[in-house]
Amino acid sequence: MEKFTPIESRPAPLVEVGIIGWMRRNLFSSIPNTLVTIFTAYMLWIVLVPFLNWAFISSDWFGESRHDCTSGGACWVFVTVRWNLFMYGFYPEDSYWRPNLAFILLIAIIAWLSIPNLPFKKWVGIAAITIYPVVAYTLLYGGFGLDVIPTHRWGGLMLTLVLALIGIVVAIPIGILLALGRRSEMPVIKMVCVIFIEFWRGVPLITILFMASVMLPLFFAGGTDADKLMRALIGIVMFQSAYMAEVVRGGLQALSKGQFEGADALGLSYWQKMNLVVLPQALKIMIPGIVNTLISLFKDTSLIVIIGLLDVLGMVRQALSDPAWLGYPAEGYLFAAFMFWIFCFSMSRYSIYLEDRLNTGHRN
Amino acid sequence: MTNEQEFIITLNNVNKWYGQFHVLKDINLNVKVGERIVICGPSGSGKSTMIRCINHLEEHQEGEIVVDGVVLNNDLKNIGQIRKEVGMVFQHFNLFPHLTVLQNCTLAPIWVRKMPQKEAEAIAMKYLERVKIPEQANKFPGQLSGGQQQRVAIARSLCMNPRVMLFDEPTSALDPEMIKEVLDVMVELAQEGMTMLCVTHEMGFAKKVADRVIFMDAGQIVEENEPQEFFNNPQSDRTKLFLSQVLGH
Ligand SMILES: Nc1ncnc2c1ncn2[C@@H]1O[C@H](COP(=O)(O)OP(=O)(O)OP(=O)(O)O)[C@@H](O)[C@H]1O
Ligand SMILES: [Mg+2]
Question: How many CB pairs (< 8 A) connect A and B?
């Protein structure tokens, strides 16, 4: 009888190495591929070269006024002269350290939570949602011995970040509760959640902001006292939680019924089941949807210009209408676009990183 | 001995409907402590529905279900009480894919029984050894074979130290070569005296360990008997037909 001997495993074949090999395989593997490569290279050449020339090579970066822009390319002086305005709005200059410190603390917390193997993650996380908001509020607004800086002086990128962050952080838990409520077996809770979600989803954000600033004071006697930024924030949070709720609902639906039953059969309570079994899995599935919503929220913050608050885009547009600086819309809008892009792109990369890290083999 | 002590599970004239569809019709069943019952019957006859009513994964509309002296009604406290004492193993395992095997096993003891983590882990390892996969403790369920996953699911239930175990076709999603490893674990469990209700088509298992075999059809218990009698001397035509189909090949 013949004995079965498995064939020895061999290492996987080495692919052609080196940049030439890579190019031959990917860019010039066939005649159509070669044509596409050449065409693309040509298009890049005629678009990119003039752009780079305008933006970097023959551009001016520093100076005092438009007369310092002499090279014929981009006049970045427009931006650098107003850098502080674009970053902080009309926040007093001697207090810039306050938003700076709040921002640095935030980055430190995010970094701490993302870098694997750092200790005390749980405590840092708890501090991030309990102590940090108080600290950040005090730093930005004032109190505890710091001068009060009213919110109508806030502006620029700082305002954009404040709106987006608070919107995000508050909308996620509310959205989760709304989504759970919408699936609830209790009819009253279910109906309240459905009405809430459908109402806020059905109205454009711009209308909500407008109502928050113009109509609230009409309806409520004390409405005029409420801070403008606070009113806008409430509107944004409502709007955003309705969207978040639908994303969460999608994630909950993607889970198999067996997961709910498995948890039930073990005797877990409703909230234990949700917190320990359902949401950790659902949130993982939902990361792309959540980040998508967050990115669109981030960009939508510009709409607060209609209630007279100036985010980074609002500051740029105001600067563009300055008679002394007429004629630099390209520089202004490119700068604003770049600011938005940096943050949105970071969020997108972070979500991909999170998805990778949470991946534990195939799901049920 | 009083009645409550003798019967750990009692179903009294239990009826259930899905909309207009009458799934369970006047089910009466008494299970003694330590009894091993195998439930069989054609697809759609209500076997799963019946055992799922016992831990209230499904709600019955008429009749009475008493588990370990606790009456099953809509009182959440009673439901929780019963689920603590009744373990369940599903056809598709229903392990939690985001937790390791060990975490799957310690989750309920820690959160429901409020056991310290160390103790829960020690118990989990004991049961993982009993189902012969202690070395997989730190893997995720997605990295295990079907048979291994089902054994983890059994261990996970046992970690709650239940008084009764329910099995709903635990081997029917498994490849043939893995069925035995799961059945072996179940046989061992039966021999240790665990009270078991098991929906299965594994007639070999029924012959080996069952004290009683129950045959269901169209939402009713048609026949119940000791395995010897049940297989050799079935009473109703329906049972005979079913047995000829199951044992025929
Ligand atoms: N959620 C539900 N809604 C409506 N009908 C249902 C539902 N669940 C089950 N049924 C029906 O109830 C009947 C009994 O189902 P059950 O799952 O108890 O059968 P079973 O005996 O376990 O069958 P199988 O051997 O296929 O698992 C079936 O006809 C099924 O179609
Ligand atoms: Mg079934």
Answer: 80
* Spatial separation of the C-alpha atoms in residues B197 and A1, rounded to whole Å: 47
Q: Please list the helix, strand and coil fractions of chain B in percent, rounded to the nearest 5, in that order.
A: 45, 25, 30
Residue B169 Cα to ligand 1 middle (Å):
13
Q: What are the C-alpha distances in Å from A130 to residues A126, A165, A219? A: 6, 15, 33
The reply to whether A254 touches chain B by the CB within 8 Å rule is no
Long-range pairs, A169-173, Cβ under 8 A, ≥24: A169/A129, A170/A237, A170/A241, A171/A237, A171/A240, A171/A241, A171/A243, A171/A244, A171/A297, A172/A244, A172/A290
The predicted complex's ipTM stands at 0.92
Q: What is the distance in angstroms between the Cα of B39 and the nearest Cα belonging to chain A?
A: 20
Picking from A259, A267, A276, the nearest residue to B160 by CB comes out as A267
Question: What is d(CA B98, CA B84) in angstroms, rounded to the nearest whole number?
Answer: 23
B88, B107, B141: residue with CB nearest A265: B88
- The answer, for A354 touching chain B at a CB cutoff of 8 Å, is no
- Report yes or no: A319 and A82 within 8 Å, Cβ to Cβ: yes
Residue B216 bridge partners (DSSP)? B221
Residues paired with B223 in a beta bridge = B215
- HSE-CB at A71 with a 13 A cutoff on CA atoms is 16
Rounded CA separation A347/A81 (Å): 29
| Optimal mutation site among A186, A266, A268, A286, interface B, most CBs of chain B within 10 A | A266
Q: Each residue's pLDDT tens digit in chain A (364 positions)?
A: 678 888 888 776 666 567 777 888 888 888 898 999 999 999 999 999 888 888 888 888 888 877 888 877 888 888 888 888 888 888 898 889 999 999 999 999 988 888 888 888 889 989 988 899 999 989 989 888 888 888 888 888 998 889 988 988 899 999 999 999 999 889 999 999 999 999 998 999 889 888 887 777 777 665 555 678 888 888 899 999 999 999 999 999 999 999 999 999 999 999 999 999 999 999 888 888 888 888 988 888 888 888 888 888 888 888 888 888 888 888 889 888 998 999 999 888 988 888 888 776 544 4
Interface contact A267, partner B, CB < 8 A: yes
